[in-house]
Task: structure prediction
Amino acid sequence: MNDRPAGAAAPSIEEDTLLGLIDRLAALIDETGLSELEIEAGDTVVAVRSASAIIVAPDAPSAPALPGAGAAAAGPGGAATTSIKAPLTGIWYGAPTPGSAPYVTVDAEIGAGQVVGLIEAMKLFNEIKSDTGGRVTRVLVESGQLVKARQPLIEVEPL
Result:
């Protein structure tokens, strides 16, 4: 699940604990309807915001409606699609470096196990691989966007 680039260190127990805490705080935000929660412990500050609390720049595309978790949705043209979901909470990057070509684009064919993006968490970049093969119908998140664990990232129409 957390495939790392060569030479990247495995997360420490403290980092795993913090990532687990962030996921639980995100679930708490969803359950309670809070818009923001900030926790400070020593030099560490963790702020978790609901999607409604994040301000989108006027020229940024609006977020598309996402299908329910685990459900197949009808993609463009009515074909059933599945989604590749974030395995952890962090910042999504659709390309290996700024200005380089994205890992995947709409209408591209991908194979199971193919890298589709990176999620940065605790200063570590984790390769995100497709668990299915098919044709990409939509990329649901922008590079640099915070994503939560289990959030759909890319829709794929199986071939």
User: Anything to note?
Assistant: The helical segments are 13-32. The chain has a mean pLDDT of 77. The chain is about 15% helix and 35% strand.
